[in-house]
Amino acid sequence: MWKLRFGDEGANNDPYLFSTNNFHARQTWEFDPTAGTPEERAEVEEVRLSFYNNRHQVQACSDLLCRMQLLGEKKFKQKIPQVKVEDGEDCTYEKATAAFRRAATFYSALQSPHGHWPAENAGPMFYIPPLVISLYITGHLSKVFSAEHYKEMLRYIYCHQNEDGGWGLHIQAPSMMFCTLLNYICMRLLGEGPDGGLNNACARARKWILDHGGATHSSSWGKTYMAILGVYEWEGCNPIPPEFWIFPSLFPLHPAKMYCYCRLTYLPMSYLFGKRFVGPITPLILQLREEMYNEPYNEIQWGKVRHLCAKEDNYYPHGKLQCLMWDTLNTVYEPLLSCWPFNKLREKALQETIEHIHYEDENSRYITLGCVEKPIMMLACWIEDPNGESFKKHLARVSDYIWVAEDGITTQSFGSQAWDASLSVQALLAGHLTDELGSVLQKAHEFLNKSQVRDNPSGDFLAHFRHISKGGWTFSDRDHGWQVSDCTAEALKCCLLFSMMPTQIVGEPIDSERLYDAVNVILSLQNPNGGVSAWQPTGAPQWFEWFNPVEFLENVVIEYEYVECTSSSIQALALFRKLYPGHRKKHIDDFITNAACYLEDMQTPDGSWYGKWGICFIYGTWFAILGLKAAGRTYKNCEAIRRGVEFFLKIQRNDGGWGESYTSCTDKIYTPLEGDRSNLVQTAMGLMGLIHGGQAERDPTPIHRAAKLLINSQLENGDFPQQELMGVFNVNAMLHYAAYRNIFPIWALGEYRSLPSFWIDV
Asked: Which terminus of the chain is more solvent-facing, meaning fewer CB atoms within 10 Å of its CB: N or C?
């Protein structure tokens, strides 16, 4: 059976692993063939089969392997009786409290020994194949992954293959060329034959590929990965010159001005392109060359297929100006760089590029920024020195990304430990039953304490285009190192709330100087329009996006301000100002004033806000109302809140819930789920949006209706059913936050049972 390990349990005294906090909150999976009773192993197989049989109804896993382990270790049994609110019956304080206690008790049992709540954070179908490709090229695929890894990676691919034979950008998306190619290649590298795989997976995938034009019609990332592997030619790729890294910062498209994910994805890609690296041409690679094209491989005119892109991939098409840039680089610039003395410039650029790669690796403890960057940075280190320490340190951190569930193995985006924990703490505190949850809260407090980043990136971090990080919190764990504004704000909020509670319940508060450091990080990420960006301040002009090279994603070239980050920051600083009124008062006052104005400016005509990290208008509107309320706005004095409340009331479903499709993100217009369905996570957000919008003071009926749906949807053990994906990034890529189905209903029920106006007679 698979077992989830925490901290240095999974380190095995590896000399190439190092940590800033003794691996606190590190989570890794190991397969133990002797683990589990026959009944436990049979239960695992049962949930796997159940998922596969229902995979087209609910695409997101319920994260059952992790949950079964944690619940089993704690011998959890739900002792609080289940409650229901019958038709025609009012919600009572007793039933609301029972539902909250049941949910909180269940979720508390899922807390790790390190104080966070482990959960899957994945969903895109381009996550695992690049890792498999890189390890195959380096000859380490079977050294890093066991036969059980192979089996579970293949399971994930089979579980999420669409009925037409292809794979989408994410597990709920229609098929596209890029992900279908990558997953077909991945199956073949993992040992499936050309007609192998469950339910003829390979043959069906290959048919989809060939029917849609073949591998030459992949979007640009697919062409790059295939060129690296040797099943495509670099001549058919748009150039990625490494010289960008040595140009002066005044250069218009300098990497320093780019969004960190764009910069650190194209950093190793440019290194591989500059070297025109191609992996070993094995018999399998030669077979793949024959399988994925509608014409013989050696007859393809690669220069003529650079701009081909299947319509299914082409969400953000390249414009004429961008195509002209690629053509100029290809026909003029690149030929020059192959001649003396210009080839000396290429050599210098490659040295500079690998130096930047090493800097990022060291400052993330070889975790890197995320799962897209990890495989190609690791491969770049292997190319530089196959026996070098950098590559070995990379190998040691591969397991940090692996996640196992009933639908198989995928890779995490990079873990959501800090983010999920901060939201979980607030959800549990919302019910005001801290005496019952004291030990859980104390462990969560300890986790947040140990997870705060204590230092800025090493050396001259500005020369490496990094921002201050001291005092921040990452999305995952401290070793990751990349501060995020909303993660910092939500964690700071929790620490401030804990500081107001008895130490015998939650432990000693975090030192005020460290709270000041967190405030510094948040203040540094506000931009001139009042909005707050995520990782680094904005500053690059919008026209940079004309050169967005990623056909299937949007808003990837530059950093932006976000409604969610702005709201979280307002909430944290407003609470900090209350507790520390003398610290940077004017800066904080100005910050909150300008941030609230930004939120008002970002409201759409229908009264909603567009959410960029969750789906979508429900998520953004909930955040915006909370931010405006924290800034001192109310329903009575703020038109934006009134319009936000009206939006929630207008879209509430007949069953009392809310339900929004992920296509709202891509189409940028509110789109309900098909079939008048409600989603419980979004129902919780809608309920809380109405509470913070003061709806209870006017007509509490819509709030009662939403609470009734949450209470009646609770499962026998206190859990809630898994439904649709709730996360998103770069407009078009959806994410599965497996813990959200617990966090948000708990939070909503806690706020609901705590409304004094409902329970005057209690």
From this structure: C
